[in-house]
Specification:
The structure is a homodimer of 350-residue chains.
Chain A: E1 3-11, H1 15-30, E2 35-40, H2 45-51, H3 57-64, E3 68-73, H4 87-99, E4 104-110, E5 126-132, E6 143-145, E7 153-161, H5 162-177, E8 183-188, H6 194-208, E9 215-220, H7 221-230, E10 237-240, H8 242-255, E11 263-267, E12 275-279, H9 296-308, H10 312-328, H11 336-349
Parallel strand pairs in A: 1-2, 1-3, 3-12, 5-10, 8-9, 8-10
Antiparallel strand pairs in A: 4-5, 4-11, 6-7, 11-12
Bound molecules: 3-isopropylmalic acid (IPM) (2 copies).
């Protein structure tokens, strides 16, 4: 494309700061080849508290007109009673993932040279989690009776379909096939969640027959947390459900330098709807507006965005620029803008 | 009691080896004060493959006649098709937890002096997870339709009741009150699992009013995995549901020297049914019968057993003996029996 029509949701807290840097880098990476048009959307906890609105159907229609969405972070003060029960997370973030059919939640993990891990001997860390994004216990299919009484019962239902699991698993195998290690690990809890677990395991077993070059194994979610801290090098491509993917990608971020570096793509592989790219971190209201946030996760999300749009060269240049920046990173404090400027400038030079 | 009537389920793989050492230590700790009677039960994957039996009502009746149960590990070769779908885990381990109403799954985590953590800077690690044991997605309340077809739907239901959550939360506060740090952290995913999350959060808020000395906070399960590797010292008493507790206790074990050291108690606090004590590790069929397994987790489970039975002095002596043994542990290989003998001998001396 010679034009990129991007929807931008800076969001709350540190969201606008990191997005400003991500956009600088995106512009630098695209150069003169691609004309970038951005439309900002005000959605977030702040917008909700001001207007009472989170995200409605007409908003979704507007967003759908774009090639992709870049999101900073959404969410307000966790102690604010008006935001209780994940109203922003569910009404905005999850609503986007569901409405735009982001069934692949792609979360690469790399321990970049020069980055400290909390692990004493991390070894090489380079894997990607292919997390399902539209099913599992995230579907909102719970309920409660006799709320607030001693007879209360509160249920949560994890919904898993052959349709949903197979398309995710197929994407996972395609990702694994594109990587040198050619290894796919299914993560679940098949010894307890037997109905869902059986569907996931059977689907992986069946699709695996079409990918004889890919080594396939299985780990329970509890065992995964052990290997993640004792031998993360054993992972290449992880395929897992929505909730297990949520949990292990935070752990994966933690062992590879923190959520300040963790990027993600909420991807609709069919291209029917725009995909959405966002750092894994939250809005961190405590440090908002202070230029303390690390924009690297947002910038690496731009690399995922470029890759998704077929701008593979530009994507690789952003990743390389981030890697070089991290390797050269000293111990002195650098502001959010300072980091973004440095990375954008290194792209301009090339 | 001047007599302790113990049911022993050595189980599969390394189970019998570690249980032999745990019993040596139990006998040494009890000395002449308490007469120990043990009844061995053959339950496990091996027994199932030989006899077709896992655990029936008459077995449960026999087990109920004992003061407590000591279990090694159950489970066979994971590739054995006859053991698929967690048939032993669910038919034996989970059945015992449910039938004997082990609603508290107590899992202490301590980084003992001299033990290497995979973390570069673990600091002091000393917390306890109070995991719910009889509800959540472990209840077996799932189902599937159109299995094996493109229209398959597989659901798993997490069941949470005011009754079940409150008794666990109350136990959690009692545990927190008994510890110097006096801090309780609720772990859940209240922003997504809103019905169950709300019940857990409201219950903790209400019970907290009765414990003004205890500092209470909340963390999402994903964030917990981050703190577990970046700042485990922030944890004191964690209260959580069955599945989240399963996941974080493996991670907790990993950061504090591995599941070779992780003990657990499946506790029925009312005393209506015998409580069951077991190492967190599995049956490890690959190293079974080779005297390679570390019996420390089983021995620390004996310490939990003694504490539960009111033998607090004996319990403290076992913990201290393990701690001393670990601190003195060199780098040379010691057999399972060697470790058990050393710890038992150090108790005999006192
Ligand atoms: C904010 C929350 C709903 C979200 C999730 O659970 O998916 C977040 O933790 C993430 O990983 O993107
Ligand atoms: C074996 C399995 C069913 C069990 C569980 O999930 O509770 C185990 O992982 C544990 O933590 O004791």
């Amino acid at each position: 494309p010679t034009a990129l029509n991007l929807a931008v949701i800076p969001g709350d807290g540190i969201g606008p700061e990191v997005i400003a840097e991500a956009l600088k880098v995106l512009r630098a990476a695209l150069g003169d080849d691609v004309e970038l048009a951005t439309t900002q959307f005000p959605f977030g906890a702040g917008h909700f508290l001001e207007t009472g609105k989170i995200l409605d159907d007409s908003d979704l229609d507007e967003l759908k007109k774009h090639d992709a969405i870049l999101l900073g972070a959404v969410g307000g003060d966790p102690r604010d009673a008006r935001l209780k029960g994940g109203i922003i997370e569910r009404g905005l973030l999850l609503k986007l993932r569901f409405a735009l059919d982001h069934y692949v939640n792609l979360r690469p993990t790399t321990l970049f040279p020069g980055i400290d891990s909390p692990l004493a001997a991390p070894g090489v860390v380079d894997f990607v989690v292919v997390r399902e994004g539209t099913e599992g216990p995230y579907v909102g299919n719970g309920g409660a009776i006799r709320v607030g009484t001693p007879g209360e019962v509160a249920n949560e239902v994890s919904v898993n379909t052959a349709f949903g699991v197979e398309r995710l698993v197929r994407h996972g195998f395609a990702v694994a096939a594109s990587r040198p290690a050619k290894k796919l690990t299914l993560v679940h809890k098949t010894n307890v969640l037997v109905f869902a677990g059986s569907l996931w395991q059977r689907t992986v077993d069946r699709v695996a027959l079409e990918f004889p070059d890919i080594a396939v194994d299985y780990l329970h979610i509890d065992a995964v947390t052990i290997f993640m801290v004792t031998n993360p090098g054993r992972f290449d491509t992880i395929v897992t459900d929505n909730l297990f993917g949520d949990i292990i990608t935070d752990l994966a971020a933690a062992i590879s330098g923190g959520i300040g570096l963790a990027a993600s793509g909420n991807i609709n592989p069919t291209g029917e709807f725009p995909s959405m790219f966002e750092p894994v971190h939250g809005s961190a209201p405590d440090i908002a507006g202070q230029q303390k946030a690390d924009p690297t996760a947002a910038i690496l999300s731009v690399a995922l965005l470029l890759d998704h749009l077929g701008q593979t060269d530009a994507s690789a240049r952003v990743s390389a620029a981030v890697s070089a920046d991290l390797a050269a990173r000293g111990t002195e404090f650098r502001s959010t803008a300072h980091i973004g400027d440095a990375i954008a400038a290194s792209l301009d030079k090339n």
